[in-house]
Amino acid sequence: MRNKNFNIGVVTFKNPVFLASGPAGYGIEYRDLINLEKLGAVVTKTISLMPKEGNSGTRLQETESGLLNSIGLENVGARRFFDEKLPELLDAGAKPVVSLACEGKEEYLELLDITSKQDNVDVVELNLSCPNVEEGGMGVGTDPALLRWYIKEAKHILGGMAVLAKLTPNVGDISSLAVISEKAGADGITAINTLLGMDINLETGTPVFDRVVAGFSGPAIMPIALRAVWEIAKVVRIPVIGVGGISSIEDAGKFLAAGAAAVQVGTAIFYDPGLPERIVDSL
Ligand SMILES: Cc1cc2nc3c(=O)[nH]c(=O)nc-3n(C[C@H](O)[C@H](O)[C@H](O)COP(=O)(O)O)c2cc1C
């Protein structure tokens, strides 16, 4: 029987099955469908310093093999999140991992400062990889100097909190970014965020999304995420958390076999909210 406990930095999780950032919102939206207490953790929707309305136009588009999204980090902002949403998530018995936006440097430092004052938070995930925003996001996660800066500041300002670096697959060599993240002080790597995709409306001949590109997730990206985790796990000593297209217990098993210390389930909860709990039961 596998020992279900595992650690990121000094933080212990009861099992290695998390909800991924985004599809479950702040987590509480799913409390009637998923026993949140049973999961290792719930990674919240990415939070920015100020509230964000998100992108205009179409935001979600299904394809044969996955989902395109252009949400654009819509969220209530840090203060409302910490005052209203986080207490509800804690009341539901969930272990929160707070996903932080890596936006402009000044906003980011203030976001870190507010986060550092939260007694109920001991792990954050830095979203260094959002493809759906102009500032910060993927641009940060693909530039080694910026990647280093964002992680170092988080480690410095957040004191003892564990810091996960969530990386983008939209690069030539994701494992080198993982090594940079580890050297900058990250306590774990989350891989992967969505891949860049797009769609065309055949009636108008124009792109479906106002920003043209969108993030692609779901079953089709699972082999890509698995390859990324395999490569990263070979070159870092910190835990790697696998995410991308996990749609079955077998998929989760493959990530753990590839070297992941834990897995996150994202898109699949839209049509199979029972999956994360079944993965926990299977361990
Ligand atoms: C609707 C939607 C919203 C998302 N929002 C976020 C987000 O706010 N922050 C983040 O780090 N990742 C976000 N993601 C990416 C997921 O956390 C995950 O990395 C990606 O979708 C791959 O996993 P999956 O195929 O299991 O969904 C979002 C994904 C979807 C589908």
- SS content category: alpha/beta
Mean pLDDT: 95
Low-confidence parts: none
Main sheet makeup: 8 strands, parallel, barrel
H-E order: EEEEEEHEHEHHEHEEEEEHEHEH
CATH architecture: Alpha-Beta Barrel
Rg of Cα set: 17 Å
SS field, number of helical segments:
8
Total discrete domains: 1
Helix content: 25-40%
Please list the strands of the largest sheet in the order they lie side by side: 3-4-7-8-9-10-15-16
Q: What coarse outline follows from CA principal-axis ratios?
A: globular
Small-molecule components bound: flavin mononucleotide
Structure description:
Strands 3-4-7-8-9-10-15-16 form an eight-stranded parallel β-barrel, surrounded by seven helices. Strands 5-6-14-11 form a four-stranded antiparallel β-sheet, with no helix packed on it. It has a two-stranded antiparallel ribbon with strand order 1-2. Helix 2 links the parallel strand 7 and strand 8 (123-127). The longest helix has 14 residues, at 78-91. The chain has one domain (6-53, 73-194, 218-282): Aldolase class I (TIM Barrel), CATH 3.20.20.70. The radius of gyration is 17 Å and the shape is globular. It contains eight helices and 16 strands. It has 283 residues and is of the alpha/beta class. Helix 2 (105-116) runs parallel beside helix 4, helix 4 runs parallel beside helix 5 (174-183) and helix 5 packs across helix 6. The model has no long low-confidence stretch (mean pLDDT 95). It has helices at residues 78-91, 105-116, 138-141, 144-157, 174-183, 222-235, 249-257, 275-282, and strands spanning 6-8, 11-13, 17-19, 41-43, 60-62, 67-69, 96-101, 123-127, 162-167, 188-191, 195-197, 200-201, 206-207, 214-217, 240-243, 262-265. The site of flavin mononucleotide has 27 residues, from strand 6. Residues 20-23, 45-46, 67, 69, 71, 73, 99, 127, 130, 166, 193-194, 217-218, 221, 243-246, 265-268 line the site of flavin mononucleotide.
